Amino acid sequence: MAKKASKAQPPNSLAEGFANLLADTYATYLTTQGAHWNVEGPNFPELHQLFQTQYEELTLAIDGIAEHLRTMGFYAPASFATFAQRARVQPPEDALSAEGYLETLQSAHEAIVTRIQEVLPHAEDDAFVELNDFLVERQDAHKKAAWMLRATLGKKSKSL
Ligand SMILES: [Fe+2]
Q1: How many angstroms separate the alpha carbon of residue 106 from the centre of ligand 1?
Q2: For 12-152, CATH number?
Q3: Domains of the chain by residue range
Q4: Is the pLDDT of residue 142 over 60?
Q5: Predicted TM-score of the model (pTM)
Q6: pLDDT-derived band of residue 5, with 50, 70 and 90 as boundaries?
Q7: What are the distances in angstroms from CA 118 to CA 31, 73, 111, 140?
Q8: How far is the CA of 52 from the centre of ligand 1 (A)?
């Protein structure tokens, strides 16, 4: 199938996908920072640090997603109301157990992987190769974060 000319404009569906990804990433950032603040238990130092490492990674991602939206010619949503409307990830109202935070965050990262897989088909045109690469990088980062949370929970992996 012939690809469109490289001057193709990003479709609204791609920008919508980025806006939804921004909302889910922001919600996961807030959940992760809440975990960093409120986690308790014998593994506090390790978990406090793990959550910090993960929310710092998300901070950079949030800025990247928003600035890609601006590059595409769209405004980046920047209010809690809009994020709550768009996000599938919902930060918990109350403090969770250490295990609860790990489980909740693993699910959040997996939900973002799903979200990215839904957005990627809208970025297949050659004109959007940088957006496509960015989405694939974000997908890898969320898979890695989910793995670290799974491993911290002691969940077993598959044997070859
Ligand atoms: Fe801190």
Answers
A1: 20
A2: 1.20.1260.10
A3: 12-152
A4: yes
A5: 0.93
A6: very low
A7: 23, 21, 11, 15
A8: 7
